[in-house]
TrEMBL record:
Catalyzes the oxidation of erythronate-4-phosphate to 3-hydroxy-2-oxo-4-phosphonooxybutanoate. Its EC number is 1.1.1.290. Homodimer. The active site is at R213, E242, H259. The gene is pdxB. GO terms for molecular function: 4-phosphoerythronate dehydrogenase activity; glyoxylate reductase (NADPH) activity; hydroxypyruvate reductase [NAD(P)H] activity; NAD binding; protein dimerization activity. This is Erythronate-4-phosphate dehydrogenase. It is found in: Cytoplasm.
Amino acid sequence: MTPRKLRIVADENIPALEALFADIGEIKTYPGRHITHSDLVKADVLLVRSITQVTAELVANTPMQFVGTATIGTDHIDEAALKALGIGFSSAPGCNADAVVEYVLSCLLHLAAEQSFSLHEKTIGIIGVGQVGGRLASRLRALGLSPLLSDPPRQKREEGETFVSLDELLASSDIICCHTPLTQTGDDPTWHLLNEQTLQRIRAGSILLNAGRGPVIDQQALLARMKGANDLTLVLDVWEHEPVVLADLAAYVRIATPHIAGYSLDGKIRGTWMLRNALANALGFSPPLPLEHYLPVADARELKLEAQADVLLPVRLLYDPYRDDRALRQTLLLETAEQAIAFDQLRKLYPVRREFSTLTLVVSSPVQATYLESLGFRVALE
Ligand SMILES: NC(=O)c1ccc[n+]([C@@H]2O[C@H](COP(=O)([O-])OP(=O)(O)OC[C@H]3O[C@@H](n4cnc5c(N)ncnc54)[C@H](O)[C@@H]3O)[C@@H](O)[C@H]2O)c1
Ligand SMILES: O=C(O)[C@H](O)[C@H](O)COP(=O)(O)O
């Protein structure tokens, strides 16, 4: 028996909704920040991104059977409430992890060129070694680097990987990358993990990058350090009170972006596709076609590189963080309410960005080939 069509309510910013869900449901879309209980009184399925707070009040007393978030982070979802209400739930673990890794690599390679250093001279510390932090560590290792890793939950569970304490990582790293989820409870909460005390452990001259969640850093404490010493290079993709950006802090940030580290088209469509799979499993619908079916062909698929070509050439072609930095800075002179709207608009109208693996680099040197492959590009030796 064919199941009846589902009534699906979704955030208007979820791509490929029609392609992935039209065969099984009637889709109604709304702005993610403004989905209300009354929008859900006749809904079987709710599909969101990170800006919809999914609470018991939002979904109780509706026919809701399944909630999905096309994101990695789940701090906007009351999972316990969904469970108590008997509503199925899925996020999209890892969907945009490669995009975040490529954001980090591109930012670091741009800073290396500006500040005339090589990543190989630096100690890189990764806080939170899951899908994003773990893949970042793998690519750095492939490049010949040995990142320091801090992840107390994994450290308690696992043997084999070597972890260091947060204090040791902060005191020993030249570059610190934060990739933890946002948690307020449990043994290792991350809310204000970097606060007045812990921020002091970071050495002058270090690079601090946060592409996890804004409140993992106490932004007033960070601002105080920068006002006092102005001795860090900051890369912030996430902000403590999004969509509001603290302009005083942004003034000290070298690369400031509007929570788009994971915004590759590949990552976003992968997130939607993963939800369709999860929904199929939960409610007994047919699975989608393979992911490739829903991904458009990339505009730039092959590039021939000269032996001496700067690595920034292909990196910047696929992702230039300063494009996003400039766009965000243009909004920071606005009044707070308008700035917040502009932040959401930058994300809604985000240009197409493809992952490194969509581009094949044609090179003649095996050394160059290995390096570029380690960064995540496809490589063909001519
Ligand atoms: N900026 C963006 O666009 C973007 C994109 C994707 C994900 N994110 C954020 O990044 C976070 C990490 O993503 P992920 O896919 O790697 O998640 P993940 O769940 O796979 O990994 C998170 C890791 O952090 C570790 N962790 C938890 N508490 C910690 C603590 N106190 N100290 C150190 N490590 C701790 C966990 O053990 C886990 O290994 C997400 O939760 C999401 O909030 C942001
Ligand atoms: O958690 C995630 O997957 C990311 O933070 C994601 O890129 C957030 O994007 P949004 O859902 O806000 O569009």
